[in-house]
Specification:
2 copies of one chain form a homodimer. By secondary structure, chain A is an alpha+beta fold. Chain A has a single domain, classed as NADH Oxidase, CATH 3.40.109. Helix content of chain A is about 45%, strand content about 15%. Chain A contains 10 helices and 5 strands; from the N terminus they run ααβααβαααβααβαβ. Chain A has helices at about 5-10, 25-40, 55-65, 75-80, 95-105, 115-130, 135-160, 170-175, 180, 210-215, and strands at about 50-55, 80-90, 160-165, 185-195, 215-219. In chain A, strands 1-2-4-3 form a 4-stranded antiparallel sheet, with helices on both faces. In chain A, helix 2 runs antiparallel to helix 7 (about 135-160) and helix 5 (about 95-105) runs antiparallel to helix 6. The model of chain A has no long low-confidence stretch (mean pLDDT about 95). Chains A and B meet through helix 1, helix 2, strand 1, helix 5 and helix 7 of A and helix 1, helix 2, strand 1, helix 5 and helix 7 of B. Chains A, B: This is NAD(P)H-dependent oxidoreductase. Chains A, B: Belongs to the nitroreductase family. Chains A, B: Pfam families: Nitroreductase.
């Protein structure tokens, strides 16, 4: 299939080695940031923070979080152009949702007289997803994957290489980036940059997806 | 920002009323199906099934699943061009992962002598995400949101309207589509089509996202 969407999604792959001399242009980073912000989420909850590791100092801090595990990803901390920590709110509250509905009204999206209705109908989904602890982190975590899917598609369109990484030490990240996370939890990160020519074993290999009939059923 | 990525993501919105006379062209549906298949996932697990509701008969079955709740979405079942049920494997097993690694080798992506290494290193992530029941449905559900993010971006590029819906009755869907789901669980669906001109209150409204500084931190 030669459609641009399919070309982009076929060309993208999980980069295993980055060119430490190449940096993403600021104008592309602006697109990525705005694309993250524009990601849709359940009842527009936006229960996320995206911490973008850009400076050498922040990269050293991230590098240190691989001390105990997932060392296969450690080099990306220093060699990739940027790494984005995708963090979710482990306990999305009515107060958090109020902030969203405030913006709904301020932006002109929601008429002010629908405020209470949106609070009730929207927050219902946050409540429906509460677990035995009274929190809804499984639900908010899933929303960050929606942002991850959007970011990966965006990077592919921009010709930027990427590596989604569940192989991050959430506990050490929680300690080292405590201030930036503000109580949010990072269990997945995205390295971005450009692969190191000839040194990335994963580059240019055929895709290994299950056949269409295994995953898609049209009825 | 006038970048095509931002234009697409700004124009897309949760459609609230579909034009029942407009259908997505088969060539666009082929792009959507292939885009779903190409979605990346943790350790390439692909723990999903996408059930595409296309026929009138399947739409009637879906319509019936809104009998008890989420009636605000019921009309989409009949008026949207297509509805995709995103279903996850509630308990992703070593046997399931074997199927993936088989395809890794068969496709030429993975050298045959790395089979056992990929089985062990990859399945570690499925194990890491097992909960007290020994299952990992929270993890596989999150992967389907990655596919949802990819599908929403794809639909936006194709100029197709969409409505992500957590407002679906997972129990009734589980009963009515038991055969197609084969034990997988659907908690989110995506309506696709074209909005009904002048009848969709959500169309053309300003976006209501939190400000960039609330969700993005560059360090």
């Amino acid at each position: 299939m030669t459609h641009p969407v399919i070309k982009d999604l076929t060309r993208r792959y999980a980069t295993k080695r980055y060119d430490a001399t190449r940096r993403i242009a600021p104008r592309d980073m602006e697109v990525i940031k705005e694309a993250l912000r524009l990601t849709p989420s359940s009842v527009n909850s936006q229960p996320w923070k995206f911490i973008i590791i850009e400076s050498d100092e922040a990269k050293q801090r991230l590098h240190a979080t691989f001390a105990r595990k997932f060392q296969m990803n450690q080099k990306h901390a220093l060699e990739a152009s940027h790494i984005i920590l995708f963090a979710y709110n482990p306990c999305f509250t009515r107060e958090n949702y109020k902030r969203v509905v405030d913006v709904e009204v301020a932006s002109g999206h929601l008429p002010a007289d629908k405020y209470d209705e949106m609070m009730d109908k929207g927050f219902f989904f946050a409540q429906m997803n509460m677990d035995e602890t009274g929190c809804n982190g499984h639900w908010t975590r899933a929303q960050t994957y929606l942002a991850l899917g959007n970011a990966l598609h965006t990077a592919a369109r921009l010709g930027i290489d990427a590596t989604p990484m569940e192989g991050v030490d959430k506990d050490l990240i929680g300690e080292v980036f405590r201030k930036e996370l503000g109580g949010y939890v990072c269990e997945v990160a995205l390295a971005l940059g450009y692969h190191l020519e000839g040194q990335d074993y994963n580059q240019g290999l055929p895709k290994a997806r299950l056949p269409l009939e295994d995953v898609v059923t049209v009825i």
